[in-house]
Specification:
By secondary structure, this protein is an all-beta fold. It has one domain: UDP N-Acetylglucosamine Acyltransferase, domain 1 (3 Solenoid), CATH 2.160.10. The chain has one helix and 31 strands. The strands form three sheets. The protein has an eleven-stranded mixed sheet, with no helix packed on it. A ten-stranded parallel sheet has the order 1-4-7-10-13-16-19-22-25-28, with no helix packed on it. The chain starts with 6 loop residues before the first strand and ends in a 6-residue tail after the last helix.
Length: about 250
């Protein structure tokens, strides 16, 4: 991508080394962008009147038409898809991905290496763990009796998977190493290692015991034994990596 000069609409802007800008990028007050980051065409960084600090870490890729509101914080190596929206006080940890057309509605957190795919809506006060996959067209709500001023964010534990088209109701709490089946509508609290599906979503049993087998005929879950693309245990024994990083299965 050819590098252009961004449109500075504010003050106290810090740009690291080897940062690349597309065309018609607008940067507002109190923005910090780390070394080696790429900002695509028509992005807006630091949107909003609050004046809060906006931080983008090193070696991030912010694709075209993305909007980061004032107070957003992105760690190193974060990527957005085109037209992603990240609102105020959203914290996105390192190596996470916010996909095409997805929206973080603010006051929420996304853990390291988590992948939020296309057209996902994440309501305020959501707490999404590390190594979580949220597939396209999912919605994480936060109002148990809309419309109201009550906000009960969704909580998703580390290594869990939320399949396409699912709706998580305000206050839903999904344990670690769990799977929510496609197009499920889920509320309530679920323990670790749960397979959840349906409308209303019900726990069908331990995910690790479900008859989901891969092409080698092995149980697919827990999935880190069979999938490591762009994960820190790539090329390593997952058990050894987990032990070294103080990560337990169940």
């Amino acid at each position: 991508m050819s590098s252009s000069i961004p449109i500075f609409q504010g003050t106290n802007i810090k740009i690291g080394e080897n940062v690349s800008f597309g065309h018609y990028v607008i940067i507002y007050d109190n923005v910090s962008i780390g070394d080696g980051t790429v900002i695509g065409d028509f992005c807006i960084i630091g949107e909003g009147p609050t004046g809060a600090s906006t931080f983008i870490g090193q070696h991030c890729i912010i694709r075209s038409h993305s909007i980061l509101y004032a107070g957003a914080h992105l760690g190193d190596f974060v990527q957005t898809g085109n037209r992603a929206t990240i609102r105020e006080e959203s914290f996105v940890d390192h190596h996470a991905v916010i996909g095409l057309g997805s929206e973080l509605q603010g006051n929420c957190s996304v853990g390291a290496y988590t992948r939020i795919q296309s057209y996902v809506t994440v309501g305020q006060q959501a707490e999404i763990g590390k190594f979580v996959f949220i597939y396209p067209l999912c919605v994480l709500t936060n109002d148990p009796l809309p419309p109201s001023k009550v906000k009960e964010g969704v909580c998703i534990g580390d290594f869990s998977q939320i399949a396409s088209g699912s709706i998580l109701l305000g206050g839903a709490d999904i344990g670690r190493f769990s799977l929510v089946g496609a197009s499920s509508k889920v509320g309530g609290i679920f323990e670790d290692d749960s397979y959840i599906e349906g409308n209303p979503g019900r726990r069908m049993g331990k995910l690790s015991k479900m008859p989901f087998f891969n092409k080698e005929g092995k149980r697919h879950y827990p999935w880190p034994y069979h999938y490591s693309t762009n994960m820190p245990w790539d090329g390593l024994d997952f058990d050894e990596w987990a032990l070294a990083n103080n990560i337990r299965l169940f």
